[in-house]
Amino acid sequence: MKLTPNQIQQLYKFTRQHYVEYYDVQTELVDHLANDIEQIWIEQPNLSFEQARDISFKKFGVFGFMDVLEARQKSLNKKYWKLVWVIFKQFFTIPHIVTSSTIFLAVFFGFNMFSAKILFVSVGVIGTLTLFFRLYFLQKERKLRFKETNKKWLLEEYVFNLGGGAVFINLFYQIAILSPEIISNNFIIIASLMLTSFILLVYVTIYILPSKIEEILINQYPEYKLV
Question: For residue 65, which of 154, 193, 145 has the smallest C-alpha distance?
Answer without folding.
Answer: 154
